[in-house]
Specification:
The protein has 2 domains: 89 residues, no CATH class; 145 residues, Alpha-Beta Plaits (2-Layer Sandwich). 32% of the residues lie in helices and 10% in strands. The chain is built from 8 helices and 8 strands. Strands 1-7 form a two-stranded parallel sheet. A two-stranded antiparallel sheet has the order 2-3. Strands 4-5 form a two-stranded antiparallel sheet. It binds iron/sulfur cluster (SF4) (2 copies). The site of one iron/sulfur cluster has 13 residues, from helix 6.
Length: 274
């Protein structure tokens, strides 16, 4: 029997079921990490204290809003407006730059695909750096969605290739180059692995992540056969001057520490025909 999709569930129960799954997964993940019970309870206590403080001051604080934010699929237009405004405000505070967070949806009758000409790629990694700039990827620690692997000409054995070649003198003699990133799989194992539905495949083929719903368990990273996902072990650092202010909620807005990210097909551009 095919897996029950979230869209099959009753609309009445969906938000509660999802929120419950997320809390359960958070607890499960915390219990599996090397943290003692006291540390775990302290973390729960800190979360509760933050929420309580928000109520006590009567203010609609960022932490309160974030704590009770709905899953992307359950947000109304009004919810999105409020959440996007909050993210824009946080970005301005953090980077001193005004940004715009948009949410272009899949276009009717459009499915995305991409091609790479391996005979033309010379391994200069310019696509890697353009992707970093477009998508506000952390410069320190460095996060890059595209990995270019250098292989011996006539082979495709990735275990014998390297992504750590010198880029000054490419193409090297008798070498070929293979850029690798998320393939937006038709039947993505990463999506099946996610315990809280923080990642899913959209109807135009793009596999997305709701960074505000991701609990950082990294099951999706283990499930991906292409090593296409990256985890933010530390707070991503992007210089103020390098921030791309044209941001998408499900794409290139600056991610928080502790969540997974990956190529999202520049949906803030591609879905607008750019
Ligand atoms: S992250 Fe990996 S498994 Fe998931 S869609 Fe991309 S390539 Fe496929
Ligand atoms: S780390 Fe991956 S599997 Fe875990 S919640 Fe985030 S998207 Fe889902």
């Amino acid at each position: 029997m095919p897996g029950k999709s979230i869209s099959d569930e009753s609309t009445q129960k969906r938000p509660q079921a999802r929120a419950l799954r997320r809390v359960e997964a958070e607890v499960e993940t915390a219990l599996k990490t090397p943290i003692d019970r006291r540390g775990f309870l302290k973390r729960l206590g800190a979360a509760g204290a933050t929420a309580t403080a928000a109520v006590a001051t009567g203010g609609c604080t960022t932490s309160w809003d974030t704590f009770f934010q709905k899953h992307y699929k359950e947000m109304t237009d009004e919810d999105k407006e409020r959440v996007f405004a909050r993210i824009e405000k946080e970005a301005e505070k953090r980077f001193g730059r005004r940004v715009t967070v948009s949410d272009p949806g899949p276009l009717d009758g459009v499915s995305f695909a991409f091609c790479i000409s391996l005979s033309l790629c010379n391994g200069n990694r310019k696509c890697v750096h353009a992707c970093v700039e477009e998508n506000n990827q952390s410069r320190n620690p460095a996060i890059q969605y595209i990995k270019v692997v250098e292989l011996d000409r006539g082979t495709l054995n990735l275990e014998k290739g390297t992504a750590y070649y010198e880029g000054d003198s490419v193409p090297a003699a008798d070498k070929v180059y293979l850029p690798m990133q998320c393939n937006q799989c038709d039947n993505p194992p990463c999506v099946k692995a996610c315990p809280v539905e923080a990642t899913w495949k959209e109807k135009d083929g793009i596999v997305v992540i709701d960074y505000d719903w991701c609990i950082g368990c990294r099951y999706c990273m283990a499930a991906c056969p292409y090593e296409a996902r990256r985890f933010n072990y530390r707070e991503p650092q992007v210089p103020r001057a390098d921030i791309n202010p044209n941001q998408g909620y499900l794409s290139n807005r600056v991610r928080p520490k502790g969540v997974v990210e990956k190529c999202h097909f520049c949906l803030h551009r591609t879905r607008n025909g750019h």
